[in-house]
Design a protein that fits this description.
With 252 residues, the chain is α/β, with parallel strands linked by helices. The protein has 2 domains: 9-153, Toll/interleukin-1 receptor homology (TIR) domain (Rossmann fold, 3-Layer(aba) Sandwich), CATH 3.40.50; 174-250. Helix content is 59%, strand content 10%. The protein is built from 10 helices and 5 strands, in the order βααβαβαβαααβααα. It has a 5-stranded parallel β-sheet, sandwiched between helices. β3 (63-70), α4 and β4 (97-102) form a beta-alpha-beta unit. The radius of gyration is 21 Å and the shape is globular. The protein starts with 8 loop residues before the first strand and ends with a helix.
């Protein structure tokens, strides 16, 4: 099992071991690692109790992307359901990317809890006194099934998922990090500020959040709060705002 001690991961891989531990998930994990994607594998998906451990919570929170392999017996594991609830919480509160993979199942069965998923959730309701918790699990399954993901019908899925994770999520984030770090080092040198590596790195992280926030605000305002920018959007306004913000921030 991977160590969780204050480590950060590119991907957290969630799955039910009985379905895919020695087959699909093993191949996917191997391919992710081969592509240089630092992946946390939850002890081969073995369920050890009803409540996920603090170490596992930390691993989820410290991951940029969570991949959830939804297979026939996924909902039978309370451990997996609790993982899913935490993953979706991180999606809402931390902006974590969540990618569902529907392994030999229909997404609509997950969304509406039909078939094996429906039977399993009914069993949970009968066996648990806490009906509210079961409803939270139901809501989580519906939410994750509505997200864009992959289906195992794709014959190249083991190769496509790592490529998609890298290109769509990690490459852009790492490029932004390099740009922010170089920009801060350049400004520090120009203004004669001390180039303390820890201070520069901390400001780099802040600057990334600032720039992403500015991009989102600019897009929303220019598009009338539409998900896509309008023809009237003015992309040149962002650099000016960014420059003023950086100058003020460097004086902290």
């Amino acid at each position: 099992m991977a160590s969780t001690s204050s480590r950060f991961y590119d991907v957290f891989l969630s799955f039910i071991g009985v379905d895919t531990r020695d087959s699909f998930t093993a191949h996917l994990h191997r391919q992710l690692c081969r592509n240089g994607i630092n992946t946390f594998l939850d002890d081969e998906g073995l369920e050890r109790g009803q409540v996920i451990t603090p170490a596992l919570v930390t691993a989820i929170e410290n991951s940029k992307v969570s991949i959830v392999v939804l297979s026939e017996n996924f909902a039978s594991s309370r451990w997996c359901l609790e993982e899913l609830v935490k993953i979706l919480e991180c999606r809402r509160t931390k902006g974590q990317r969540v990618i569902p993979i529907f392994y030999n199942i229909d997404p609509s069965d997950v969304r509406n809890q039909r078939g094996k998923f429906g039977e399993t959730m009914v069993k949970h309701e009968k066996n648990l006194a806490n009906r509210e918790r079961v409803q939270i699990w139901r809501d989580a399954l519906t939410e994750v099934a509505d997200l864009s993901g992959w289906h195992s019908r794709n014959k190249n899925i083991v190769e496509d998922v790592p490529w998609g994770v890298h290109v769509n999520f990690l490459k852009a984030e790492r490029s932004l990090h390099r740009w922010a770090l170089e920009d801060l080092q350049r400004i520090h040198a120009a203004e004669g500020l001390a180039a303390d590596e820890k201070v520069v790195e901390w400001k780099c992280m802040f600057l990334k959040m600032l720039v992403i926030g500015c991009m989102l605000i600019t897009q929303m305002v220019s598009s009338g709060f539409s998900p896509l920018p309008s023809k009237e959007s003015k992309p040149n306004e962002l650099p000016n705002f960014h420059s003023r913000s950086v100058s003020a921030f460097l004086k902290l």
